[in-house]
Structure formats: structure tokens, C-alpha cells
Amino acid sequence: MVTPNNPINPPGFVGGHPASPDAAETIGPVATTVMALDATEPPVLGRAMKRRPYLKGTVVLPSDHAWTPHEGEHLLDVRDLQVEFRMREGVAHAINGVSFHLDQGETLAILGESGSGKSVTAQAIMGILDTPPGYVTGGQVFYCGTDLLTLAEKSRRRVRGAQIAMIFQDALSALNPVFTVGNQIAEMFRVHQHMNRADAEKQAISLMERVHIPAAAQRVRSYPHQFSGGMRQRIMIAMAIALNPAVLIADEPTTALDVTVQAQIMSLLQELQAERNMGLILITHDLGVVANVADRIAVMYAGRLVETAPVGPLYANPRHPYTQGLLESVPRLDTKLGEMLPAIGGLPPSLLSMPRGCPFHPRCKYAVDTCRAGGPPPLVTVGPHRLAACWQLDDPAVVAASARLATGKTSVPTTVTGGEPA
Ligand code: ADP
Ligand code: MG
What count of other Cβ atoms lies within 10 Å of the Cβ of residue 420? Predict the structure, then answer.
């Protein structure tokens, strides 16, 4: 584990504890990732800095993506994260002990209904939580061995965008309508790398080409409203990958787009991830979107993880009744025309007054007394790299439902290739 108290420099790990908060700003370009738009170009490491472990509130960052985890270490390791919103009506417990990890080149899908805490989790990792009313009240977010939650805001700012970047569902409102898209992409290079205007524009054009925007050299001077929804999302992706982040969080990146464009954006994200060996967190409420893309899936319900599993086993053999319900509501190859798909009845609980017992019990057809009174069930191992949190995992009816889903064929959109980018 690499922490400020345990100053071991793994291979390829160049970082530094600046002497003062001001120094943190001046070493920004050294410690943060250096642009490598051309994947074959070796990253510039800059001067290696002495680490001063006695200084607090500073960040140790890898200068390239060759960070080598120690035994049991992950690129991103979220542990027991807790977030609450303190409001006049009471305290909303939005995240209640969420833990997951992400490695280089891996895609983790976070899946859950609206309001389950997916975006809040992402905001807590990025350090962009709406405070007040939102507060991280517990847990750790290790990035390359450093707990981001212990860092001063100045240090976190250097991680945000450069090391961990995020794209949002609504590309139109995330872009500034009064500046050209080229200007907004170039800004990343001007601010973070002090590039001159002409060079920054060249980089913007090359990034726009990289995300397959046709006629990039001309369109670099266009405004956001002159692009389609899919193209705007490509522009957001270009901005997110501009500084070559190690982690990309995509929060419902295709929800506002139609199905064909969705598939194109997904395939672009996959392509970029493979090229840059990024860790990708894909947040979605749609099981179909991630089936072909994710390596692992973490299912969230009412601010908790209820099931995590590699994607194949999760689709073939969902263990948690909530995951089973989500899968049952997806059209399958054996679904007959006009057949009604079962939806999960009821609504997620209010975060202001969570039910006693398992938070899912009011909607669960298998609930028994333990589920109502036993407290929230812990995540337990249910198979290789698989966890689930349910008091009734071994109930024959729950096991039978899992087996029933295993025999059906889930029809999920496959990645569309070819054609003009939309
Ligand atoms: P989703 O899974 O749809 O992304 P969110 O993470 O956005 O859900 O929200 C989870 C819960 O956190 C919401 O149901 C809401 O109660 C609470 N929440 C999120 N943002 C705020 C906020 N700015 N103020 C108060 N409560 C919030
Ligand atoms: Mg959300």
C-alpha cells in the first residue's frame, strides 16, 4: 500500500510531496499525467521529485500509466464510502458503505435505478459533491494508493480531469454555449499544459479526429448547438481524455441518445479505453447498455451494493432478487411478441426514512421476517469474484429464479459498427 506514511515508490511511479500548498500548483505539470495523444509517444516524466512523507494534504501521482500496484492494490479502491445529504427535512443517507475497485484497462459498470446513488458515488470520487448539503461521512477512496479524501482541495484539483476524468449524460449543458468547441477542448491544454493558442487548437483538432468527428479542422470553430447530441457527447469525451486520465467515469453517457448512437458512443469508449489502458467506470440504469462492454457489474440499491459479479456470471445466474428483477424486465430472445415483461413493483425507499431490515424487502417477493427485521444484509461471497447481499440467498425460490433466468437468452443490443458516426 502506498500511503503518505508508507513511502514506497513502485516502479514507474514518480510523485512528490510539495513543500507547501503553493508548490503543489507549480509542480502540477510534473506530477500529473503528461499528454500522450499519440499512444506510441513515450510520456515525458519530468524531473523526479523527492518524496517528503511528513507533509500532509498532498498527492502522490503516477506520471504515466505504468503504475504498478503492489499485492492487493488497485488503481482505484473505494472502501466503505458513506455520503449523506443534510437537509431541513432530515438527513438523507445516500451512500451507505459502498466498496468496489477498478484496475487499469478494466470496465466496471455501476447499475441501479434512478436515485440509487450512482452519480453521488461518482461525485464523491471526483470531489465534486454538492457541499452543503452533501458530505462524505466515512470511507476511503484510494487512487494509486493515496486516499483522495485526505487530500487538500488544491491537490485534489490536480487529480480531477488530469488523472480521473468524468463525462456526464447531458453534454449540451456541460458545454459552454458561447465558446466554440475547439476553444473548450483547447482550454484543457492551455490551462493544464500552458500551451499556446495555435498548438492547443492543433491538439483540439487531433482529439476531435480521434473521437471520429468528421471535418474536424473546419468544425473546431463551431459552437455546441451546431452539433448533434451524439457529436456533442464525442466532444465531451474528447475533453475528458485530453489529459490522458488513468480513470474515466462515464455517468449515463448515452441515456439522452438514440439506440444506434448509444452503441457508437459505447464502442468509441471501448476503443479509447483499450488504446489508453484506462480504467472505465460506466454508470447506467440500463442493463442492456453494458452487457457487451463491462468486465464486472456492481448493482446498487438505495445507496448500497447488492450484488457484484463478472458480467457473464451476473447475466447467466443473477443471485440477488433485485438483479433478477432487473434482468426479468429486459426483453429476451424467447420473449413472445406482445408479452408483458414483469417489472419490479413499488418504488425505491425514501433515503430519509429507510425501512428496517433489508432496504429492498418492501419490493421483494421472497421477503420473510428476517428481511424485515434483520438489519441490512451484508455482502457475502457467493462464487468466484462474486458478492451478494440478501438474507434469502439460499431460499429455494430465489435459487430457482436464478436458474430460470439462466435458461433464457437475454437479448441485449450488440455493438453497432460501421456507418457514419452520428
Ligand atoms: P442516481 O443513482 O440516479 O445517479 P444520485 O446519486 O444522483 O442517483 O442520487 C442519490 C440520492 O442522493 C438521491 O435520491 C437524492 O436523494 C440524493 N441527492 C443527490 N444529490 C442531492 C442534492 N444535491 N441534495 C440533496 N439530495 C441529493
Ligand atoms: Mg445519476
Answer: 7
- Which residue ranges make up each domain of the chain? 1-72, 74-156+286-333+353-422
Q: Which residues sit with their C-beta closer than 6 Å to ligand 1? A: 85, 87, 92, 94, 112, 114-120, 130, 133-134, 351
Beta bridge partners of 298: 110, 308
* pLDDT band for position 221 (cuts 50, 70, 90): very high
What is the Å distance from ligand 2's center to 251 Cα?
Answer: 7
Q: Residue 386 has what DSSP assignment? A: E
Between CA 108 and CA 112, with CA 111 as vertex, the angle to 5 degrees is 160
- Looking at CATH, the fold of the domain delimited by 74-156+286-333+353-422 is given as Rossmann fold (3.40.50)
DSSP per-residue string spanning 345-359: -S-PPPTTSPPSS-T
| pTM value surpassing 0.85 | no
Torsion sign over Cα 405, 407, 408, 412: positive
Question: Which ligand 1 atom sits closest to the C-alpha of 87?
Answer: 25
85 C-alpha to ligand 1 centroid (Å) = 8
Cα(118) to ligand 2 centroid in Å equals 6
Nearest CA to ligand 1 atom 15: 115
Q: List, for residues 259-318, the tens digit of each pLDDT value.
A: 889 889 999 999 999 999 999 999 998 888 888 899 999 999 999 999 999 999 998 899
